[in-house]
Structures are given as C-alpha cells and as structure tokens.
C-alpha cells in the first residue's frame, strides 16, 4: 500500500484522517498524509498525530518511508507505539508550513530575477537560499530584493501543471536547478506555473497567490566556491 499525498492537490490542508500502514525505523507510515517529506531542498513538516483515545504523538520530522511510495512521520523519542490498522487524526504545524510555502515560492521568483544556472537550494522555516553559477560581483542585494518584491506585488495566482516525462525531455529548458532533478517514474511531472513569470518542475508546497509571500529581504550574499554564489533570504516580516 502506498501513501496518498494529499498536499499535492491541496497544500492548505491543515488536518486530515488516516490509517497506519506501517511502523518502522524510519517512522510511522500512513495510507494518506498532509505532511510534506524532506525533499527538493524543502524541510519536512512537523505536527501531531492524534489517537482515537485523545493521546497525542508529536511528529518532529517527515521523510521518505521504507519504500519510495511511502512517507514516514518521525515521532518524538519515547512516543507511544502505533499499530498497523489504527486510525489517527493528522494536524500539521501550519504556521511553520506556511512560512516554508512562502519562502519556497519566493525562491522561484528570485530565480527569475537572477538569470543564472541554479546549482543548489534549501528552504527552512526561518530562511531560504539559492546558489547560482554567476560572478559574485554581479549579485547586488538591494537590486535582487527590490526586483523580487516587485514581482510579489503583482499578486499573481500560482497554478499546478502536469506534463509527461516525454514532454519534459523535450523541454530541458524548464529545469533550472542543476542539483535537484524533477521526480520521475510515475509517467508525469508536476510543474509550478506563475503566469507571465515562471514555469518549472517542482514537487514542493507553494502559496496560492504570490502576494501571500508579503516580501523578502536579503540576509547575505557570499561565495561557496567557483560555481556557487549563495543568496540567502528571509521573509520581510520575520524577526
């Protein structure tokens, strides 16, 4: 049995019900989940599983499961052991997830402002970054922030688009991130479209409208090697 990825169709689901299908070293596997697993540079979700008797199990991370088609929810040390077949209620840490969604979508916009190959990226709840193959002198923090925030102010609604593996093979220009390849194997690939701004493969969670990002600020720009110049951002309303 596989894990149904509810967040793929609705990243705004804050709670759901599910059934335990496995418990192993990696964590608790469910038949369906709203928890995004670590991958594509985005941190895994945290939250809570509730048993029918009201017992609470804190989830400290979410990862890929024992097999590629399952998701493992990592419980806090010492948590009660769940049993296969047991029903549970899921609740994600929504405030944390929404920050990840805002930052992830902001990186898509920034990749349109800095026109260079993307060599890496990471999204954490408090900050995010992209690495570019570009000369350090060409990266200006004030300009990047101003142009990215100008795009955010256009308040464009995002769209999810699916294409076949063959269609992606015919459009290699869609893949911007050199270090993270789009997930394949299911016969189709998920794209994030920001009309008039960006279109690229991405399996992460994103805001429904880029206005939700609110704004970004540049934390720092530094060299991480000959082909890696790092631009680190945070949300404007972060502490």
Characterization of this structure:
This protein has helices at residues 94-113, 141-152, 165-169, and strands at residues 4-5, 15-23, 28-30, 32-33, 47-50, 56-64, 71-75, 87-92, 118-123, 128-132, 159-164, 188-194, 198-201, 216-223, 229-235. The protein has 2 domains: 4-92, Beta Barrel (Elongation Factor Tu (Ef-tu), domain 3), CATH 2.40.30.130; 97-235, 2-Layer Sandwich (Threonyl-tRNA Synthetase, Chain A, domain 2). It is of the alpha+beta class. It is built from 3 helices and 15 strands. It has a 6-stranded antiparallel barrel. It starts with a strand and ends with a strand.
Shape: globular
- In CATH, the architecture of the largest domain is 2-Layer Sandwich
Strand tally is 15
Structural class: alpha+beta
Distance between the termini: 43 Å
Give the fraction of residues assigned to helices: 10-25%
The string of secondary-structure elements, in order, is EEEEEEEEHEEHEHEEEE
- Average pLDDT works out at 92
Specify the number of helices.
Answer: 3
Low-confidence stretches: none
CATH class of the largest domain: Alpha Beta
Our estimate of the beta-strand percent is 25-35%
What would the CATH topology of the largest domain be? Answer: Threonyl-tRNA Synthetase, Chain A, domain 2
Order of neighbouring strands in the sheet with most strands: 2-3-7-6-5-8
Number of domains: 2
CATH superfamily of the largest domain: Threonyl-trna Synthetase, Chain A, domain 2
Oligomer: single chain
Radius of gyration: 19 Å
**Biggest sheet layout:** 6 strands, antiparallel, barrel
């Amino acid at each position: 049995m596989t894990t149904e990825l509810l967040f793929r169709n609705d990243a705004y689901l804050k709670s759901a019900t599910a059934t335990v299908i496995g418990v192993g070293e990696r964590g608790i596997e469910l038949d369906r989940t709203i928890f995004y697993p670590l991958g594509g540079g985005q941190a895994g979700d945290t939250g809570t599983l509730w048993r029918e008797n009201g017992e609470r199990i804190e989830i400290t991370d979410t990862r890929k499961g024992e097999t590629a088609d399952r998701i493992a929810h990592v419980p806090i040390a010492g948590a009660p052991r769940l049993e296969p077949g047991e029903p549970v209620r899921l609740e994600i840490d929504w405030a944390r997830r929404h920050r990840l969604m805002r930052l992830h979508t902001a990186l898509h916009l920034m990749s349109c402002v800095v026109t260079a190959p993307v060599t890496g990226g990471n999204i954490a709840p408090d900050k995010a970054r992209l690495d570019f193959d570009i000369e350090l002198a060409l990266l200006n923090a004030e300009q990047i922030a101003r142009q990215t925030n100008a795009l955010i102010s256009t308040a464009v609604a995002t769209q999810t688009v699916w294409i076949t593996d063959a269609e992606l093979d015919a459009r290699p220009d869609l893949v911007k991130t050199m270090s993270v390849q789009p997930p394949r194997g299911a016969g189709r690939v998920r794209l994030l479209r920001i009309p008039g701004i960006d279109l690229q493969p991405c399996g992460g969670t994103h805001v429904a409208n880029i206005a939700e990002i609110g704004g970004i600020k540049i934390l720092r720009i530094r060299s991480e090697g000959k082909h890696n110049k790092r631009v680190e951002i945070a949300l404007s309303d972060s502490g």
